[in-house]
Hints:
Elements: E1 10-11, E2 15-21, H1 28-36, E3 44-51, H2 57-62, E4 69-74, H3 80-90, E5 95-98, H4 110-118, E6 125-128, E7 135-136, H5 140-157, E8 169-172, H6 173-178, H7 187-198, E9 204-207, E10 210-211, H8 223-237, E11 256-257
Parallel strand pairs: 1-11, 2-3, 2-5, 3-4, 6-9, 7-10
Antiparallel strand pairs: 5-8, 6-8
Helix pairs in contact: 5-8, 7-8
Amino acid sequence: MAPQRQEIQAVPFKLSLVMPAFDEALTVESVVSSLLSLDIPNGLELIVVDDGSRDATAAILDSIIDPRLTVIHHRANLGKGAAIATGIASATGSHLLIFDADSEYDPLDIPRLIEPLLTNRAEVVYGSRMSGFGTVHPSLIHALGNHAMTWMANLLYGSVISDLHTCLKLIPLPLVRASRLSESGFGLDTEMSAELLRAGFRPYEVPISYVGRSKEEGKKIRTTDALECIWILIKVRLRGSTSYGNRDHALAPPVRVQNDPPSTSRFGKDPQ
């Protein structure tokens, strides 16, 4: 007999924005300013992790004074995944959203991602760049590579997502912390999605805008990172599937934000 599924308790929505930054002196100040200007229900916190930058990024961040902003410095460059992990450890919100410091993404898309949560239509929301909604890819190879890895993820996990490597993933913080995340580089992005898909989550996708940088403009991801991501998709899939009827193998359940009355969910009861 399957265990009885319980009702999720509602919690106040609070957005934790985590921004890894490495040598982003040209853009980091304007991106931080744009994020802090957003009108988000119940407010937000912005955690910027300077990952051992060699330019003026650290000094610029330290000059910005705002009670919602927390700046953490790594003495050496540990990798994007390690910077994100540092930010996640300091987050206090109900939901996590990672945001890059390089101005490829538009902060004005964030309220559109939050809306499905506040109406209880979604538990995990992805911003998709594949809808043609103001999207500029830096090259054909970049676009084809993302399509190929997204197709592989869908094949491995039985999902139907359109953009595996979007930066804008709005995820309940308990789910992130319960996931088996170990990658310290760009592969953390893939590992995070793979863990959610493996656990049975199917993200609600919202069109977003995107203007990708070229390598000459500072794009840091390389072909070797793409090959590593393919291996991560396979590695996580080999961990097996999870079942929300079995608490020994399930991720922590997502939270339901306080808006509409809470209702029965297939994900069990949020731990207190």
